Each structure stands twice: as structure tokens, then as C-alpha cells.
Amino acid sequence: MSSQSDRTGMDESFIAKPLGRRQIDQAYPLICAISPGLAVERWRAFAAALLDRNGQSALPAGIMTVQNANGYIHGLFSYAVEEDLRHGPALVVDNFVVMDLFDLGGAAEVLLRAMEALAARLGCTAIHTNLPEAYAILTGAENPVMACFRGQGHRMETMRLCKPLGGANDNGSRDGDAAGCAGSDGGEAAATGRTPSRPLRHND
Questions:
Q1: Is the sign of the CA dihedral 46, 64, 80, 197 positive or negative?
Q2: Which of 26, 45, 79, 129 has the fewest CB atoms within 10 Å distance of its CB?
């Protein structure tokens, strides 16, 4: 079992940084892990729109990553500030994904700390995280990501259901459109499956 000092040392090899425009394509394989079949053009447009909105809107949005010392992306989440009926201004997190062969929990913890710091800086009173259902299905040692969330005070609050309309598939494109990462299973750390996501709510 790793000691606390071992975990701290591993955490220090990761740093949380906003996604840069030149890194949009680099982040695409991670997005494929949670959205198999998503066209690269769809990801590019989505990411560019969030980066354009950051700092230019009354309700900020963006993409946060966790990277190693060499600039390789090991995880990310997209976010937007929204007004919630019960909690007021909330940081709404989507597309949370981490992938690391040796320290999945360490990468996740760095992202979670960045998430909380971001929420505080933006004046939010809660964090609402929509996770792929695979994260909720796995238990115990199989699910270090969920353990990190619960350890940081996040709890299950609601369930979100999704029904694609007008012939659109789960990736927001029409059936038959080109898919840039069809067949990707996301590797050992992926929360795959285009299924209803379960929001985790962290309320201050």
C-alpha cells in the first residue's frame, strides 16, 4: 500500500492548467474515452466555444486539465457557472475524465482540488458534477475516481436522464455522421458508455 508521502510525491508530478487552444487536439483521445464515436470536429467546436466564452461572459466557462511535467494531459473537465434554484451560483462540471496507468487517483485529486479552487474564485456556492454512469457502477478498488470525489465531500444528489431528439445520437450528431474515434474503449481508466449520467453535488 502506498504511503501518504508516496501519494504526495506522485501528486506533485501533476499540475492543473486551463486547456490551451493548441492543446485541443491533444485532449481529443481523452474525450473519446467517455464519448466513443465523437467526431473530432465536434470536439474542436465545443472546446473552442468554451474557450471563447471564458472571460467574455457574465457566466464563465472553460476547460481545466491535469498535466504532467512534460505537458501531457492526463485528465480534464469542462465547466460553466450556472444559477441553481437551491444553491445559487454553481460550478457545473461535465466531461470529467482521468487516465493514468500508475496514479489514477493522484491525477483525479489534482483535478478535484482545481475544481474547488475554481469554484471559490468564481464565487460559486456549490459544485455540480455530471459523471458518466460507469463511474457510479464500479465499486471499491475498481473505482478510485469515485473514492476521490467522496473523500473531497461530494455526494449523490440527483439523477440526470437524457433522450436524444430528432435522430441525433448520444454524441450530438446525426446518425450516419463521421465518427472520429469509433471503436475506442477508453482503456483501463475510461468511464465509457453513452448512458444517463449521475450528477454528484458538492454543496458548501
A1: positive
A2: 45
Residue type, 160: R
- Nearest CA among 66, 53, 55 for reference residue 27: 66
E strands present in 43-159: 61-68, 73-84, 88-98, 126-131, 155-156
Residues in Cβ contact with 8 at an 8 Å cutoff, skipping those fewer than 6 apart: none
Q: Could you give the angle at the alpha carbon of 143 between the alpha carbons of 139 and 149, nearest 5°? A: 105
CA 151 to chain centre: 17
Query: CA separation (Å) from 47 to 31, 64, 78, 154?
Result: 11, 11, 8, 26
Query: Which of these, 147, 139, 113, lies nearest to 127 by C-alpha position?
Result: 113
- Whole-prediction pTM: 0.75
What single letter denotes the amino acid at residue 46?
F
Backbone angles phi, psi at 65, to 5 degrees: -125, 165
Question: Is the distance from CB of 111 to CB of 64 less than 8 angstroms?
Answer: yes
Residue 99 near residue 67, CB atoms below 8 Å: no
Round to whole Å and give the CA distance between 50 and 103. 28
Each residue's pLDDT tens digit, 9-55:
445 689 999 999 999 999 999 999 999 999 999 999 999 999 988 66
Over residues 135-154, the pLDDT tens digits come to: 666 555 567 777 788 788 88
